[in-house]
Amino acid sequence: MTATHEEPDPTQPDPYGASEAETSQGRVFTVTGQDWDTVVEGISETADERVVVNMGPQHPSTHGVLRLILELEGETVTEARCGIGYLHTGIEKNMEYRSWVQGVTFCTRMDYLSPFYNEATYVLGVERLLDIEDDIPEKAQVMRVLLMELNRISSHLVCIATGGMEIGALTVMTIGFRERELVLDLFELITGLRMNHAFIRPGGVAQDLPPGALDEIRDFIALMKKRLPEYAALCNANPIFKARLEGVGHLDTAGCLALGLSGPPLRAAGYPWDLRKTQPYSGYEEYDFDVQTWDTADAYGRFRVRLAEMWESLRIVEQCANRLSKLEGAPVMVADKKIAWPSQLAIGSDGMGNSLDHIRHIMGESMEALIHHFKLVTEGFRVPVGQAYVPVESPRGELGAHVVSDGGTRPFRAHFRDPSFTNLQATSVMSEGGMVADVIVAIASIDPVMGGVDR
Amino acid sequence: MSADKQVEQTTSTEVDEGTATTDSGVHGGGAPVRGVRTGMFGVSGTGDTSGYGGLVTPIVFPGASQRPYGGYFDEVADALFERLEATDLGGVGRGAIEKVVVHRGEVTFFVRREDLPFVAQMLRDDEKLRFEFCSGVSGVHYPDDTGRELHAVYHLLSMTHNRRIRVEVTCPDADPHIPSIVSIYPTNDWHERETWDFFGIVFDGHPALTRIQMPDDWPGHPQRKDYPLGGIPVEYKGGTIPPPDQRRSYN
């Protein structure tokens, strides 16, 4: 605390200390650490209890760089607004200057907790424009579903883990990240990277499953079946956990639809809308799973929906593993050589690169193959004129890419309808009239990822 | 291009590339040309040595479709036109829909911009339509689509009927105004702010149309095609690589 804190010298202001200033908007206090005494003293001079607090953009419980502008009356929030844009990186603009395949490398970085969904919705849009939706090999489809469902588990784990941390349930955080690490290990084994994979490509996936991957996946499923009940045991009936979550951040079905909320908030309001069931893509209609709902429309319901969805994802992963065991050696890229990436990757003595077989072929055997490789890699393929929108059910809701082509080798425009961006609009309605501490719970129940919000 | 004048027209006549056909009152026509592509490989700056440097290819977007559209598209169109005909509100009628484009299994209704709120309200409330979920608006800038440079594209979802449609509205660069539909779809609040921020489309009637991603005092609208990507050349081992928008490209 600030028992030994000296008043800042007016000629030498402490850049990290609390300060106050008179502006045309009223008195402004700048508080960076545990200097609330300054504010309390300042306010106590006036009888007015109303205070506007800027929470963030640097605040651990705002999931990144979300800025909350809260108008408080005592401890009650009378108005809540979000300030976003602190993580805007111009991904959509940048994609207009790269080839269609390179676009995957950009959009995977948007919502960094669910990269495979970003890739999938973009790639599905490109494939629709190319009119090759029916030509994607079965193995590529199954691998996409496998990766997406593993990704749903890791994303929900982070949501539950950080949400728990924010209300003081630190054990939920530590075990959440412990399990997420296992999923990331699988990603690393299959794609070579823990995140930002750029693995789902137009026409299929970048690479076949590595040897031993199926065994690792089966081990993971077996382990998760033991570990997932721990979350239920820790949280489901925990009186503190329930007291913090129940009735907080209420938003019913009508509110969800008006504000465009999808995903767990909508399903926690009791509406079983899941694009994997209602508008299946990537062969989701072939898998056996249930849409999980809850009927309380609050933060607790959203937690329970996410917990139950991890079980469903595990079911799908298991089915994927069974299907993949029968698909050994099957192609993972579309047969059309004018679209398919020409080479497979392989691990050599100097790290990962184009497979030696492919290099031998283009450098020593076929001039035409070399030209073909060069054209596809430098120039890229052309995508017919038109526009497409193929949304997918990401862990946060409807994620869709509006992809526009002018017939060139680059996207004319790629816009992402990110569920975090849309769902965050519910902050005001979920937190106004409640306590400051409940704002944190309400936002955690939306599970916004600022990389996706700002893009 | 004859398409230039469409936006300002309030009558129901529309000639699109001189091949106007009518489809039960809906404006038909050829495919709209939104720019041209030159040369064999689309390179600019350096010469095209392929011998096809003088080649000029128009960029033709999918044109108006003829009935039947297929699938549920006909049902949606029927219900929409039925409701439009039943109303007679100062020019609103069948003319509100400029054309219907079916491409790659998706349907796009081009709506005259002044009629957008009316059509959106109908799409949301009519029991045969019931598009209760709007997935937001996305802007597209076509600099060569003279008179209709800015497009606002809305993706609508009917959970009741499990259908998706797209609504597209255009406005000229000189008069970048489109009516806001935030009062109908509150979710579009942030989406319209984003489209204003990135494209400079003014959504009239929006409760607080301010920038959302860029800083408040940012000049320009970054996603427009006339706004440069930016970037600096990068030196690596003696070589210099220009920024992405200045590299030799094949587009």
Protein architecture, described:
Chain A is built from 18 helices and 13 strands. Chain A is of the alpha+beta class. Among the domains of chain A are: 91-331 and 383-417, Orthogonal Bundle (Cytochrome-c3 Hydrogenase, chain B); 340-380, no CATH class. In chain A, the strands form 5 sheets. In chain A, strands 10, 11, 12 and 13 form a 4-stranded antiparallel beta sheet that branches. In chain A, strands 3-4-5 form a 3-stranded antiparallel beta sheet. Chain A has a two-stranded antiparallel ribbon with strand order 1-2. The radius of gyration of chain A is 25 Å and the shape is globular. The model of chain A has no long low-confidence stretch (mean pLDDT 86). Chain B has 251 residues and is an alpha+beta fold. Chain B has a single domain, classed as Beta Polymerase, domain 2, CATH 3.30.460. Chain B is 14% helix and 27% strand. Chain B is built from 3 helices and 13 strands, in the order ββββαββαββββαβββ. Chain B has helices at 73-86, 116-125, 188-199, and strands spanning 22-23, 26-27, 33-38, 56-60, 97-103, 106-111, 133-141, 150-158, 163-171, 177-179, 202-204, 234-236, 239-241. A 5-stranded mixed beta sheet of chain B has the order 5-6-9-8-7, with helices on one face. In chain B, strand 8 and strand 9 form a beta hairpin. The longest helix of chain B is centred in the N-terminal third of the chain and has 14 residues, at 73-86. The two termini of chain B are 24 Å apart. Residues 1-30 of chain B have low confidence and may be disordered. Classes of the chains: A alpha+beta (455), B alpha+beta (251). At the A-B interface, helix 2, strand 10, strand 12 and strand 13 of A face strand 3, strand 7, strand 8 and helix 3 of B.
